[in-house]
Amino acid sequence: MFFAEIIAGLHAVISLRYNFSQSSRTLGQAMSKLRVLVLVRDGHVPPRSLEGVSDSEMDPWKAEFDVCETLRRLGHEVLPLGVYDDLAPIRKALHDFQPDLTFMMLEEFHGVVTYDFAVISYLELMQQPYTGCNPRGLLLTKDKALSKKVLTYHRIPTPRFTVFPVGRTVHRPKKLSFPLFVKSTVEDASYGIAQASIVHTDEALAERVKFIHEKTNDDAIAEQYIEGRELYVGVLGNTRLRTFPAWEMNFGSMPEDLARIATSRVKWDRKYQEKHQITTHAAKDLDVATQDRISKLCKRVYRALSMSGYGRMDLRMTEQGEIYVIEANANPNIEFGEDLAESAESVGIAYEALLQRILNLGLNYKAAWMTV
Fold first, then answer.
1. Which pLDDT tens digit goes with each residue over 319-349?
2. Which pTM does this prediction carry?
3. Is it true that domain 158-224 has CATH number 3.40.50?
4. What CATH number has the domain spanning 3-132?
């Protein structure tokens, strides 16, 4: 679900979100109370109440608010901690608060999106249980080129690609034919993605690669553009995995001459979403065999990339039924009303139950220090 849909029902969400069913209350009473340290980006520590907070003010830390408030409603003691470029506050919180586990919502460190794996590595060095993906899985999934190499080795279908390092001349390999999709090798959340990301000539390719280099200061990756349906599949687990029903992006009334891709505008511009009725919803018309094929494929990706906790797979399915893995996302957005939470709820896993399962997976994950 995108922001336009979320905000439309905001007041109902605030009043009803945590009016748990009897089964949810039983769950909260039956489980042990935990001390949970929640790591968030500096400046994204959510308030205890939404009173007097505007929609635009809430946007940057909505996921953090949903997680912290839900954990409190489940009976846990929660300490959100803002982090930017210093590990000392984490060390102090581990010493003073003595958390049973840390809920990882930090997506970068010192502004570098690939450094989240280093923070998790630090938690492992401190022998602290945590939620979400382990360091190896984070490292592999954050590097799109590296993850695609691993998937290719395992013969998992993913578009052909090449990487253009910063400062190198752009030469397209003959194996890559147009159209191509150009993006950063490490950025996520559609950063730097626009209609111009789809290129049809060598001149346009060189221009877009240069744009990515200058905008992100990172290497660019160009992959074969796959025309088809855009699907998102949530995966939950450490060793025993469960997939949720595929969610699909509906591009609504976007002009026919525009590529059906999740640009930054499609993903984050509320007015644009409302204008073109862009939504996400349960994928329709998928027969049982296709659903089973998607589920097995996503589990293969999850294991190949050493993921744990929870993740989301971004797929493309052609008219002929071919399925390609575009990206694997460790620790994806789990705010209330977003795709992963919605797909879990569609099979009877309420938001509070989803977060409790994520906590349990964090507590049960066998890190290396536990085996020494």
1. 999 999 999 999 999 999 899 999 999 999 9
2. 0.88
3. no
4. 3.40.50.20
